[in-house]
From TrEMBL, chain A:
InterPro entries: ComF/GntX_DNA_util-trans, PRTase-like, PRTase_dom. CDD domains: PRTases_typeI. It comes from the Bacteria. Belongs to the ComF/GntX family. This is Competence protein ComFC. It comes from Lysinibacillus macroides.
Length: 196, 455
């Protein structure tokens, strides 16, 4: 799993891997993309996301989700790990509909967390196979409930942190928060890879 | 009673013949594909072959670094996929590849060659030799200088093969070359179905007996072609990427001959082909010698650009071109340097533009230069081959940079003097020290001229 990449996962240029003492002693992940490629991702302005949405990010998501290149889940593992390592709340990745997940062959939110060795659990279930990206703003805001609790899920009196790949209008996250709060969660926050 | 049988849709056969395709990516209805499979019209292959080592059955990649293993939600077990050809749709252990084995498409024998041009003596000889080789199913090398009229001399060979109901492929590493060849072949073979395949090409119907494709697209074919022609066989990335060379082998039938066409054959190619299966044309079609590059020192040009000044000699050269109303191309070793320089050049003339590989307006900008809407263009090595502009004058800045190999420099010099009304022109290598590659390029051009005009 933690193999050292010799080529950039995005542009296939050879990676110069210099094993520094810092990387060795602080157990950092080895880089998976070259400096040139990583400079193309722009850090987000908000505190609830890592990056801004731009052309490079669009291409990245396309290759990860549409072309199903799971290996790309590793690209942001160091950044995600740094953000989540001291997190006390329970981390909940936004789930996919089982049919959708079978079509894509993996859940990208889970894979992003797995690549960074971040523990998570699933309490929610997606109710529809519709995608948010196929709807316009109005349809998104007035969508019927997107999630329900899994059978037997114990939610009460705990802190949660939802994780998704991208936040555009925030409808997905809002729906998930609502379900958890009504079920008696103490507090629900969210964090996304990208701020749309 | 309703007829419950199944009739093979001809379009399905026409599309799938010769292709190796992801089963669930077929443009046809899943029900038709399944019916065809029960009729044993398809051979089914697993996406990734595991023994003796991982191998992608589409692109034949065996580099272990380009395989990734993951927990697959579709087959519920660890699954391996190939990252090498992922842009064409993912091939993994649990996906199936289908290969047509059913009835073959109907191949026409009536093909018209509509071409009225005249061959020079050398072209005629090369065309005859190529035809003879292909008829004898022997691979052939055409080595001809830039502007010798290589494409034309393929016409008799292609026409002959089509008339014998053979399937022909012309492959090249460059999309630009496919785009340039396509209209030309459509014009010359008006009765033939021709497909042009490249990344992002539109869907094309029918059975193409003549396929123009980038070498990348050949991953999608398997033992499909009776004659394989590789144009610009020395161009990047073909020479560097072994899987592309394997793709050419895989896409053709085992006994099909390959014709390599190039201006700058590698030593390996030259050694592989002897006597009767080589054609050499050291002369341009218009019977004028190749322009010989001149070396001109441009010391510390990089410093000068970063200080915000165009080196004097280069500035003078550019201004001269503008005054004499000659279109010009200036090649740069890196995009960064070119962009720096572009701003400075625009202070000489606002209309000077710059192009690089990822420029979306690349085609339009070249067209502007051709139509004389702009005086000149700054470029990286992407325009080193395939483009023809009347009376173009060329300068290379930093000709000593490692990116300018002898072949690249020969190709760049080959842009000049291609038109019979303007058979000469200026080709200037501005440098910070002369390299052996520059010497080699010049020596080769002089050698071609000597060969061509000593006869």
């Amino acid at each position: 799993m933690n193999k050292i990449e010799s080529r950039c996962l995005l542009c296939s240029q050879p990676l110069k891997t210099t094993i520094s003492w810092k990387a060795f002693l602080t157990k950092q992940f080895s880089p998976t993309i070259c400096e040139k490629c990583s400079a193309r991702f722009v850090p987000a302005q908000s505190t609830t996301a890592l990056y801004q949405y731009n052309e490079t990010m669009r291409e990245y998501l396309h290759q990860l989700k549409f072309l199903q290149d799971v290996a790309l889940a590793k690209v942001f593992r160091q950044e995600l790990y740094t953000r989540f390592k001291k997190e006390k709340a329970i981390i909940l990745p936004i789930p996919m509909h089982p049919i959708k997940q079978q079509e894509r062959t993996f859940s990208h939110t889970e894979e992003l967390l797995k690549a960074a060795y971040i523990p998570y659990i699933q309490l929610l279930e997606k109710t529809t196979t519709e995608t948010q990206s196929s709807k316009n703003r109005d349809q998104r805001i007035h969508a019927s409930p997107l999630f329900r609790l899994k059978a037997g899920a114990q939610v009460e009196y705990k802190d949660y942190l939802l994780f998704d790949d991208i936040k555009t209008t925030g409808t997905t996250l809002k729906h998930a928060i609502e379900v958890l709060m009504t079920a008696g969660a103490k507090n629900v926050q969210y964090f996304t890879l990208i701020d749309g | 009673m309703k007829y419950t049988g199944w009739i093979l849709p001809p379009a399905l056969r026409d599309f799938h013949e010769g292709r190796i395709w992801l089963k669930n990516h077929s443009p046809f209805l899943p029900i038709d594909i399944d019916k065809a499979i029960t009729h044993q019209y398809f051979h089914i292959l697993e996406g990734i072959q595991k023994n003796p080592f991982n191998k992608c059955n589409r692109c034949h990649n065996i580099d272990p670094e380009l395989f990734t293993i993951f927990e697959c939600a579709s087959c519920q077990q660890p699954c391996i996929y190939c990252r090498h050809c992922i842009q064409m749709g993912r091939v993994s252990s649990c996906t199936q590849l289908i290969l047509w084995t059913g009835p073959t498409a109907i191949k026409k024998r009536k093909h018209v060659l509509k071409w009225t041009g005249q061959f020079t003596e050398l072209q005629q000889q090369a065309a005859d030799e190529t035809l003879a080789s292909v008829k004898a199913k022997r691979s052939h090398l055409i080595s001809a200088v830039c502007g010798a009229g290589k494409t034309e001399l393929l016409f008799p060979t292609v026409h002959d093969a089509l008339k014998r109901a053979l399937r022909v492929c012309i492959a090249t590493p460059r999309t630009d070359v496919v785009l340039e060849l396509y209209p030309r072949f459509q014009q010359v073979f008006p009765k033939t179905v021709i497909h042009a395949l490249y990344g992002g090409a539109p869907k094309q119907d029918g059975y193409a007996q003549l396929v123009l494709a980038t070498t990348h697209q050949l991953y999608r074919f398997d033992q499909a072609f009776d004659v394989m022609i590789v144009d610009e066989a020395d161009a990047f990335p073909y020479t560097f990427d072994e899987t592309l060379q394997k793709a050419v082998e895989k896409a053709k039938k085992a006994d099909a001959p390959i014709v390599f066409v190039t201006a700058t054959p590698s030593l390996k190619l030259q050694q592989a082909f002897q006597h009767e299966s080589t054609s050499f044309i050291p002369k341009r079609y218009h019977n004028h010698p190749l322009p010989v590059p001149q070396f001109d020192a441009l010391w510390n040009y990089e410093k000068s650009f970063f200080r915000g000044k165009i080196p004097k000699k280069l500035k003078h050269w550019t201004e001269q071109r503008i005054v004499q109303k000659e279109p010009f191309l200036i090649f740069f070793p890196t995009v960064a340097l070119m962009e720096k320089a572009a701003l400075l050049f625009q202070s000489i003339n606002k209309q000077i533009l710059a192009v690089h590989a990822e420029d979306p307006e690349r085609k339009e900008k070249v067209l502007k230069l051709r139509n004389k809407e702009i005086p000149g263009l700054l470029t990286t090595t992407i325009l080193e081959r395939g483009i023809t502009i009347r009376n173009v004058q060329v300068a290379v800045v930093g000709a000593e940079s490692p990116i300018f190999t002898a072949n690249a420099l020969i190709q760049i010099a080959g842009r000049v003097g291609r038109n019979k009304d303007f058979p000469d022109g200026d080709i200037r290598f501005f440098h910070h020290g002369i390299t052996t590659k520059m010497d080699e390029a010049r020596a080769k051009i002089i050698f071609y001229n000597k060969e061509g005009f000593s006869l």
